[in-house]
User: Fold these one by one.
Assistant:
Number 1:
Amino acid sequence: MLASPGMGSQADPTAVLLARWARGDDAARNELLVRDLQWVRAYVHRRLGDQVRRWCETGDLVQEVMLRMMAYAPRFPVATKHQWRGLVGRITLNAIRGAARGLRALEDVPERLTTLVESIVGDHAGKAFARPDANAEAGEELANLRLGLLVLGVEDQLILELHFQGSTDAEIGERLGRNGNAVRTRRARALNKLFELSEEIRAGTIGRRFEGEGAAPEG
């Protein structure tokens, strides 16, 4: 669900660009990228360790990730520049952290997260999610879960992915250096958080989580 850009001269420029992009206007997407790329670079670099930061500076990785993530989840239900920056910054940061830790290659993110969403839905794992075959808005709900997964922390993504691939909590814990009980608790919390995020995306309120982060100054 995309936030309304408003009316007349009071329309927020970011909401207007997002609405144009949602209608298939690639020029609007490019304008957002050019306007906010430097801000997202600074946001990501402030939150990365030195080693990952040096790796991230090889080529224009932040721009590559932003383009991939924007292509994967083009419906961003936010209303202001600060909400947009905070949300896309968090998504870009998560993708880079996952790649730097060797959890997944950047080019694999869309396919792997799409498969994970399908597994979650097929398992009917969350009370907040209606069965897709009985849900007239199944496509929108799937898109909401995809975006929610991008926002979810990297380790939470991995725990859910491994679980739905058939790994036991003990096996996941061995990979992550945790015990099985801790993984079980983390998995339950991650799934609950994912459905909370999905509901906020559906309601168009997800951007409020990132308003403060997106208000950080340039550089």
Note: The chain has a mean pLDDT of 81.
Number 2:
Amino acid sequence: MTNLDSRPTEPGRAGTRATPAALRRLAALGRSVRDIRRRGVRVTPATVFNTIRLSVRATGRPWYELPVIVSGPTLVRVSRRATIDIAADSRLLIGSGGTQHVFDADRSRAAFVVLRNGHVAVRGGRARLSWGTKVCVSPDARLDLGGGTFVNANCIVLASTSITFGERCFVAWGTTVMDTDFHAIDASRPRAAPVSIGHDTWIASEVLVLKGTTIGPGSVIGARSIVKGEIPDRSVAVGQPARVVRSDVDWEL
């Protein structure tokens, strides 16, 4: 009688048993998927493909924890030479949430484009780029997003050198942030200069933030303002161009 326990392993079957490490990864992946569903992310084949593709590309956090989550009909173009760095305690959500009752989410296509040697980093928690928001990081440029930062629907972020959002920045719908003029009017002046937006800043709807702008922590920018230059900490600035109309403010969501 043949002893079944003594039969040799069939060719190609060796090593197929799941290891504890693989099981832990699958469990983490399952938790990440459940977390996605709880947040109302639209799951489609394109969503799954782009989420896994960017999560594998990201550094700083294991891919199976899905450090980057892409939702809806989002355009994703990331150069092979670009880098996406998501801290261990952080996550980047693209194309979900926001003022969806104002905009048609099916038609407001988000875009996440990072060109050659571009760099995107998220630190300090979860950052979200909402419905229809377009982000383009040019070659050799960088975009830094602090944890808790929320960029609402149909915004535009164009980085040609450096754009930095601190933690807990709230950017209302229709706002444009760019660090370049794209075209030179005066050849003696640089076309681009870094933009820095401090922690706990509130930028109201349809604001235009131009190159070389620094907005201090705790500040508020009024709707449809055009911002260029330096806005002090904890200030309210409004107008075209934006001027400080109040100081030492404490705002809350």
Note: The radius of gyration is 22 Å.
